[in-house]
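tokens incoming
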């Protein structure tokens, strides 16, 4: 998917979340962020001592990584590669759970 460039951001987030889960990281979630222009942007969040956010659709950095103590802190720091800021988490899911936010 990645080498051929055929995946959209949701596909990439699903793949990364699945890989983390397969490696034993049961806290991995696809978190769909609501951006300031009301669009949606998928990222992967997981915890290993701290919470991490990975944006695997960031072409400039390969993927962007943020770390914080809370998901609210991660969302407050997040910005897409074209400068859009996140306003919150719309919903999150993995293979075992689904949760809508706000």
């Amino acid at each position: 998917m990645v080498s051929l460039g055929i995946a959209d951001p949701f596909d990439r987030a699903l793949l990364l979340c699945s890989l983390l889960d397969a490696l034993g990281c049961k806290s991995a979630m696809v978190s769909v962020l609501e951006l300031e222009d009301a669009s949606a942007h998928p990222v992967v969040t997981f915890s290993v001592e701290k919470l991490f956010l990975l944006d695997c659709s960031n072409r400039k950095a390969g993927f962007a990584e943020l770390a914080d103590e809370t998901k609210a802190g991660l969302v407050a720091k997040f910005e897409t590669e074209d400068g859009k800021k996140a306003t919150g988490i719309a919903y999150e899911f993995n293979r075992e759970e689904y949760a809508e936010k706000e």
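note: The first strand starts at residue 29 and ends at 35.
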